[in-house]
Protein 1
Amino acid sequence: MFGLIRRIDHGLIWLNLIALLTISFMPFPTAVLGARLDANDQFPVVFYAASMTVSSVVLTLTWLYARNRRLVEPSLANGDLRRFTMRAVVTSVVFLVSIGAAFAGLLPAVLCWVLLLPAARLAARRLSG
């Protein structure tokens, strides 16, 4: 994403800082998930899925901000912008859906990430042109 951004403004800097904050937080939910002692304990899985969702949504918002403020590479075709936007939105939606799957346990959440995410991104690519 940032390879496509050619200019910056204060809003983009703040969104980038928030995105970095969410990413730097990820080792904590990962450790909570890894330390899960009870296979029936849903909290670590839901916490991890929610943390991934927040990171994905913030990165998507950062992209949308840069695109709408015309901070991206001016030579990018509209189709390329649409494809990248669809991919970002679909990724956020899949992580949001995985929160619900996480309430059913680790396996449904992992299946959401491993199977649904690539399938949704492929479908988004086909739909966006």
Protein 2
Amino acid sequence: MQKYIFRRRRAISNVVAAALLIGIVVAAVALIWFLIAPMFTPRAGITVYDITTYGNDGNDCIDQIEFKIKNTGTVALEFDVNITTSTGGSYFTIQDSGVNIYANGKWASDFGATIKGIKKVLGPGEEILCIVYIGDDVGFGLTSGSSFTIYIGIKTTGTTYTFTP
């Protein structure tokens, strides 16, 4: 009696089997294409955070700006000595560091600014603490509550990143 139970079962047709096989292959290729391939694709990314300003010399002007730069991408980023603004202008950075500060229509590099903590190349996931000292802080005119923009030039991608706290 038991051997007759399986005789009534029929297999799926060849057309349905081929359609299922094609569907499984397409799903596997899509999974690899959208989920796994981006893991191996190099990408550039940078983040600036923990921005702090100090006025150490008793006047109302800011003479020190601290911030951290982190490479959030998967490739090493080389800082560029020139930065390009959105209007197409090109400016030198503070001590050829790849970083400059812009406020009130002025560049910090024009007012005796120096920088500490910068490296020429920033590896993936690596972060650095940068300290910008503005020599002529009164001439630069950045005061507490004023807005400023940090420009970072990256030679690896040919991109200038801007951050306004």
